[in-house]
Amino acid sequence: xxxxxxxxxxxxxxxxxxxxxxTFSGFSLRTTGMGVGWFxxxxxxxxxxxxxxxxxxxxxxxxxxxxxxxxxxxxSKNQVVLTMTNMDxxxxxxxxxxxxRIRGKHWFDPWGQGTLVTVxx
Amino acid sequence: DVQMTxxxxxxxxxxxxxxxxxxxxxxxxxxxxxxxxxxPEKAPKSLIYDASTLQSGxxxxxxxxxxxxxxxLTISSLQPEDFASYYCQQCASxxxxxxxxxxxxIK
Lengths: 121, 107
What we know:
The structure holds 2 protein chains of 2 kinds. By secondary structure, chain A is mainly beta. Helix content of chain A is 0%, strand content 47%. In chain A, the strands form 2 sheets. A 6-stranded mixed beta sheet of chain A has the order 2-10-9-4-5-6, with no helix packed on it. Chain A has a 4-stranded antiparallel beta sheet with strand order 1-3-8-7, with no helix packed on it. In chain B, strand 9 and strand 10 form a beta hairpin.
């Protein structure tokens, strides 16, 4: 069974850096073709893709957020970490991680339960 | 970037109704399209990939069609558990982009 779970702070102050961890089980990022993506969803709004990292350490970022995002993996811990700098209240959202499991296919399943991050002073 | 436009943004339907949701891409994406279902306060769940391939375990009342720029998600007979929001996502190129979502509500 494949599971993913996001963890990190629920409240972040403006200008601070957000660090989120996706801890997964049931697959390995050492396996060819595997990937983990990050997404977010502001309250009442649509989904937005943020970043993805692959088994070979290839990384892709949303161009609109690229300057603020860093995605890394720790294969020994089965974790993927997303950092987002200079947080702003508009970054308030539920953040999700999800598995990319077929090489060359950029859809994601399953997803973690999500973690709500509020940016407020 | 490929812009994804979903319609309608919401709809009201009754159990047993046939429901159709459309998704239009701003440029051709072949069949690189996925559909997700999201229930309130829950994570998205993948329903369909490659425009028309059902994920394992997804009921056969769900179907997807289309290629190029125009795509459709159809629920042949709406069930109580299908009341949710639905999102399309283009998988053809980065940045990956989603439609604005369609909320399916009970009439």
